Amino acid sequence: MARPARDAARQGWIATKAAGATVEHAATLTADRARGLLRTESDRLREGSEPLLMAALRARIASRPSSVFIDWSRDAAEAFGDADAALAIHPVLAAVIEGVKIIDDIQDGETRCLAAEVGIERAMNVALAAIGEALGRTAELPFDDRTWSAVAVAVGRGIRETALGQEMESRATGSHESYWNVVDHKTPPLVATALELGALAAGADPVHAAALTQLAVPLGRVLQIGDDANDALGDDATDWRTPQLNLLMLYSLSGPNGDELGELLRRGEDRESLRAAQLLMLRDGALGYAVHTLTTTLAAIGATIESLALPDPQPLLRLLEQQREGLERVLRSSGVDEELARRVAK
Amino acid sequence: MPKTAMPMTFDEFRTSSEAVENDRPIYVAVRQQRRWFRDGSSAEQAVQSALRAIARWVPWDPNGATGS
Prior knowledge:
B: 3 helices, disordered C terminus
């Protein structure tokens, strides 16, 4: 990653953390004062953005972009009896996701992203404006004071802890422990916010809504394991640039063929080398390790859903079943016989 | 964030999955997978098939969800 991009991303996460902390602090005040503070902070974060880029951002938020966080907030709302209630909080989630994604793309040096189109500085202004938009929309949510305060805490914590997790990623060492530490801190905060907001919007008591956050770490792992499998083995695999952040690459790099794989990944831009690296990882059992981590994670999710005693656990159980079916398909398509694939995935 | 148990280390998994007497389904499946990918005659076809399945495995935009 180029130094200006790295520095800009670092500044972005610092500003994001501060915004999240402000929301958490605001939630300790009376709801009226807290809403006022959020509006002020929202205006401050949006003041650097250009009108046209701001309009594009708002259009994107209004279009409700497809996102697993949005889907899971709806599942959480449905678990408390009213899936459509989540619609009220979707713009807040969508705005946070936009802001985080813009900074993350800058940090990762993505070649297809907003910063590549309009420049790092202008993109960063949009990212902060997106966070500001999330705060402004949180201030306007029509919930009773107790529910609204719980929503504000969840939004603030999600923003602040995501920024902390992203900073942690930039210091990843490539060890097994470091990998899981980053995974468990980077994505789960926003998963927790999505679940909690969905439940609160559907009228769940704040204590019951907060209990759903027990699912955030395992669901965050599910997301990351799937992403890593794609980014290691997919046609558009990109993680050869940052193998210390990819589970399958780390697995094979730590094994007997690690030197050979390291050499192939260094030449990852060459398609033949990347193909050879992918075959080496598959023969080495890297996909098997990913499957193992996924099955244990899915088992943890199942046990947690059961322990939550939700009014309607079906939406979350459905999510779990979809994951198991996908896993079974992967196993069957990679040489595992049908009966065994079913037993492993269940 | 509540704690979730740490997955098995790479070495622990490698050792367990390579021990032929270990008949837990996940280890038997991994040995079947590795044999399949090592079969030279079907390797490229095997890889293609697995990659298509992996692409469908993740039911969301792989890079859009977390941006990672």
